[in-house]
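[AMINO ACID CHAIN]
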Amino acid sequence: MQKRILLVGAGAAGQVFGLYLARGGADVSVFVRPKYESAARGGYRLYHVDPLGRRKAERLLPSEVHTSIESLANAEPFDQVWLCVATTSLDPRWLADLAEVTAPATLVSFQPGLGVRERLEQAASRERIAQGVIGFLAWATPLEDSTDQRELAVTEDPGIAYFAPPGMVIPISSPSERRALQVIDALRAGGMASHLVGDAEADLAFGTAILMPLVGGLELAGWSFATFREGDAPKLVTEAAKEALTVTIAETGREPPILSKALLFPQVLQLGFWVMPKVAPIDVETYLRVHFTKVGEQTRMLLAGYSERAARHGLPNDAIESMTRGLEDLPA
């Protein structure tokens, strides 16, 4: 039987998931703000980027486009509801309304940050919730102010570009193994590798504990890889990430992956920011600036969350606090 799947938010990540889900035979609809309704009804243009930077055009046409809770209440039941919005958008009030009108559909979440599950459980029973980790990069192309020829080539045909690293697998977990496996099956049917894990939120939390300080340090360096490498940012990022990891260990009761510890050296970060532009199949410096400027509120919220939780556990948070103050002092 064909699965009916609703994407809540049809930004870059939502469109990529929608493309693969539809490719696997799912009936994919979207729930967007009214100002995006026309674009959704016209369909989405996407570009698959391979490891050599070559692009292949693809298209996603949603089956239905919804712009209100009332519209969803009158729709045929959905099997899964994929939350493709930023962590800052997870307001328990509208989540509760959404969960009510789509019950008993599985709510699929990929939002980073500690405490996401608690927010979701304010809106729906924990058995309805599945969580995962996004393993691909997706962005609106052409990237703003990019001089990369691969970006400039699509100036007349903008869309969403995405790059899935070789070997990428999407981990999924849920208190209900049946629901988790249904999400995994939907991804696999469309050609996206996925597997069952014990706790995807915890897995994501460790990556986020490194990523958020890294993004904060890069923003303090003016989004310039060269400035980042040559200044004090690598040391600050390393110390802030260590603090965030310590908080994550305290919150999850788990140890971080070995690889995450290997990254916590300023010299490793400096080398990484030197190598990335040379090997990445995308304009990675511009991508990071554009993407994380767009979700800057989320970065600040997550950093503040680490600081608050550190204080609650009696753990050090000096580096995170220093980074947060620096970000607050940046020009608006």
About this structure: The chain is about 50% helix and 15% strand.
